[in-house]
Design brief:
28% strand; 5 helices; Jelly Rolls; alpha+beta; four-stranded antiparallel β-sheet
């Protein structure tokens, strides 16, 4: 995280933003470009008004999916407590080319989320199997 914060070129494409509890950081469907790094606070991820994830670890990268997929925002991001983020307005291609450590962090974050989603799906499927009576 320190290298990113000290990188003047990357900082020129960014700004620090503060959000109050329950304030929307980004809305599902928005065509806004950019991604975030959490400095402090806690953020909830909502899909169709349902809380699907939350995170509070300083340095976590979030909001990157729309840039990677080149689509509108895939979820709504809401501050669950007073929260401070850095909002970066740079392309994925630029990050990959010039910021390998940030690229690695994005990949790690995505892999962790995928693993958690897979575990959650298996839990739901196993519960569904337990509930259904055998034929």
């Amino acid at each position: 995280m320190k290298n990113i914060i000290e990188d003047n070129e990357l900082l020129n494409s960014s700004n620090i933003q503060e959000y109050a509890e329950k304030q929307v950081i980004a809305s599902e469907g928005d065509k806004e470009v950019g991604w975030y790094v959490l400095l402090k606070g806690r953020v909830g991820v909502f899909k169709h008004d349902r809380n699907v994830a939350e995170f509070s670890q300083r340095g976590v990268v979030f909001g990157e999916l729309s840039g990677i997929l080149n689509t509108p925002r895939t979820a709504t991001l809401i501050a669950l407590e007073p929260t401070q983020v850095i909002h970066f307005k740079t392309s994925l291609d630029n990050i990959i080319e010039h910021y390998p450590k940030m690229t690695k962090q994005i990949i790690i974050n995505l892999a962790e989320r995928l693993a958690k989603t897979t575990d959650n799906l298996i839990t739901v499927v196993e519960k569904d199997i337990e509930i259904k009576p055998e034929s």
